Amino acid sequence: MEKITIEESSKTPFISMDPDKGLIEIKGRSIPENSLEFYKPLVEWLSEYSDTEPKTTQVKIKLEYFNTSSSKCILDIFKRLEVMYRKGWTVEIFWYYDEDDEDMYESGEDYQSILTCPISLVENKTF
Amino acid sequence: MEFDIANWVNEKKTDNVLLEHVGDFTSDYIDSVLPSIEAQFDDKIASDNIRKKVFHIFVECIQNLFHHIEPISCLTSVFGSDRIGAILLVKDEAGYRISTGNFIKKEKEKFLQNKIDQLNTLSADEIKRLYRETINNSTFSAKGGAGIGMIDMARKTGNKLHYQFYPVKGNADILFYSFDVLIN
Lengths: 127, 184
Prior knowledge:
The complex is a heterodimer. By secondary structure, chain A is α/β, with parallel strands linked by helices. Helices cover 39% and strands 31% of the residues of chain A.
């Protein structure tokens, strides 16, 4: 299956989904008016990716801003990853936030509280 | 149809207006206004945390207008468009305030009123719990849904949300919905 790369725009994040490396990266701002439309191909890619039975997947996500509709779409992505985790495959999610960005830290905690798949909150780092 | 948006704008204004817009809220308009808002932040908002909060809430408010302004045909003769809303970002002694206003069908009044009244009774922990439940269990449409934007605003600001419905003379089916959120 093919790698997805989407360049960052003023309202949407940089996305890289690499099936060979088992690496998913999301970075920047996610404030599109229509988040469902933006994230739909990514959710579909994950379905196809899951069918390849990947034994190890790493997800790195660092957002500067995201709107509430994006927060729901990101949860949908995490839920797809959780299904893979429950199959016994390794799924590591890293949620990056700036040192004094309490809101972004809390968003990471929100996802931790909803999902059983482990999410590491990582302060002040880029990738 | 009679409702004087200019009066409403004047009521909301302070000596320090960072942004004022009355008209349609298209995707292109939002694209153009966000960078100008951020440019002003560099000069006027010292704290990085407040700057991020104001921008975040501003995006939610302006996108609410984008999604929820309803075309109302009788507005065209007054404004030249049937999709009219208003937004102000001002600073006053209490902090930064975002006010939005738009015409809605009267049937939406109760839903909005109940949603905001309920949020205003909740503690910070209860709002956090409601946010998590809503994001996890609700179905969202392309327009958003379940009032998640309002829950998020109440949570991030820690302040009560204010609203008012103004009657529109000559049209009992329409109200002007005014919404205020303070960030400090």
